[in-house]
Amino acid sequence: FEGRNSTHQMKKLTNAELKMLRDRLLIDVSDKALDSGLPPYYRPGPDSAEIEYMKERRAALGGSVPRRVVTKASLPLPGPAVYDELKGGSGKQPVATTMAFVRLLKDLMKDKGIGARFVPVVPDEARTFGMDAMFPTAKIYSPFGQRYEATDRALLLSYKESQQGQILHEGITEAGSMASAIAAGTSYATHGEPMIPVYIFYSMFGFQRTGDQMWQMADQLGRGFLLGATAGRTTLNGEGLQHQDGHSLLLASTNPAVVAYDPAYGYELSFIVEDGLRRMYGEQPEDVFYYLTVYNEPYPQPAMPDLPGLREGVLRGIYRLRTGLAPVAQVLASGISVQHALAAQELLQADWGLGVDVWSVTSWNELRRDALACDEAGLLHPDEPAATPYVTRALMGTTGPVLAVSDWMRAVPDQVSRWVPGEWSSLGPDGFGRSDTRASLRRHFHVDAESIVTAVLQQLARRGDVAADLPTKAVGRYRLVDVHLPPGKDNEGGTA
After folding, report:
1. Alpha helices in 220-361 (DSSP H)
2. Alpha-carbon distance 131 to 126, whole Å?
């Protein structure tokens, strides 16, 4: 029978084939029962040798599977003081958001109530992310302890391996690192002990390389934090296209369990991490996990501004960061692009006498998810007043067109365009870019401050709000066709 090499298109066996199978397996079913045209189900009795054998083997394996036992146990969450450093800003010291997060993680791991439950996972270069400061205290886990002399042993922050180590330094294996993250993220169910994986990786090597495992983590109801470091398509130039991630947020949007954020500042990170711990490990734990995109480009981190509804805006996905003088347009930016949007705001005022509002969008994905939920509620309850999406309410009553800019493909901000009142346009690094500096790369993709200025002028000219030739003048004034910018135009700091 097997030798026929039948394909999966074969839907059922013939009567002769059924009898052949019955005889071969010694199944106690008569010819009459098979000739009836409706073959019977066959189940050996509970005392049969077959059933007894199956029960014995199942008992030897530890019982029936699948079996998921979840003991609801909330963790003692840290108090607000642990987040104060990020909320206080960095003064004049340039700090990348990756470094800001690592500082917060260090403080969280010192917390007496929850610190021991953090599981930092690094697939490659922990030093790249500033995690070497954790080596002396948290140490790198090794089941055998340290069995070699580290080449950097003379350094204060040298490699320290220990059987009691807390950091999983996996070597260059993103698949193995994701497996560790899943194991820690599901330990609340498999072992009755909630653990908090914090998996930090080059963002290009996350959803693109191990996206199937991210789906597996969702399928297994895993919890924890994934950090796409060196995020964005223009922050890590010079190492080829392999690190220019402009789409992981788009891939993250396809996973229903992923809560994705693209923060620009440390105080935004503090709100997001605090709320993430509450949602995943608080009184009513949710089966979600967080994806945070953090950058390697340093810039001064401002102190938390005194803005109404700031915390809600950060967590929901958008808030007005800086109001312009008599604003005629709205600029929405996320992540590293917030810096360029603020610079564009100053240029528009200084060079063209125009004011714009700048908004920080912490999560395009969460704004879209909220809007879809509003649409779904309207579909199911047409007789009730329609719910208004958060992004619509935030921008309702603002003046002028809306321009979105990010270090991600236009498809990322365009997710929310249908719910934004007014004229919409977006800028983003679609395509490949091989420029040698960040400034040149951003000019190539036209996501720098001067390109934002020109795009706003173009929107206003289309509406008749400014002279029709203003965009052309801006292209000439800022030399937008020149994609090779001189040295010193950009801050090239930050590690790879």
Report:
1. 248-252, 266-281, 310-316, 337-352
2. 5
- Is the Cβ–Cβ distance between 429 and 408 less than 8 Å? yes
As a whole number of angstroms, the distance between CA 121 and CA 176 comes to: 10
Distances (CA, A) of 412 to 56, 83, 334: 54, 29, 10
Across the chain, which has 496 residues, the per-10-residue mean pLDDT values are 58 85 90 87 89 93 78 88 97 95 96 96 80 84 88 78 91 92 96 95 93 97 96 84 92 98 98 98 96 96 97 99 98 98 98 98 99 96 95 97 98 98 97 90 96 98 97 96 70 55
CATH code assigned to 80-300: 3.40.50.970
Q: What are the pLDDT digits (tens) for 292-322? A: 999 999 999 999 999 999 999 999 999 999 9
pLDDT score, position 158: 78
Cα(363)–Cα(416) distance, integer angstroms:
10
CB 262 within 8 A of CB 245: no
Candidate CATH numbers 3.60.21.10, 2.60.60.20, 3.40.50.620, 3.40.50.920; the one for domain 321-477: 3.40.50.920
Q: What is the pLDDT of residue 487?
A: 54
Q: What is the pTM of this model?
A: 0.88
What single-letter DSSP state applies at residue 81?
Answer: G
The CA distances from residue 418 to 210, 367, 425, in Å, are 31, 11, 11
Contact 226, 427 (CB under 8 A): no
Token pair recorded at residue 179: 């497996």
Cis peptide before 66 (omega within 30 of 0): yes
Structure tokens at 330: 């709205």
* Contact status, residue 203 vs residue 157, Cβ threshold 8 Å: no
Q: Please give the structure tokens belonging to residue 377.
A: 């509620």
Strands 318-322, 355-361: pairing is antiparallel
Residue intervals in the chain for CATH 3.40.50.970 = 80-300
Query: Tokens at residue 28, please?
Result: 């106690």
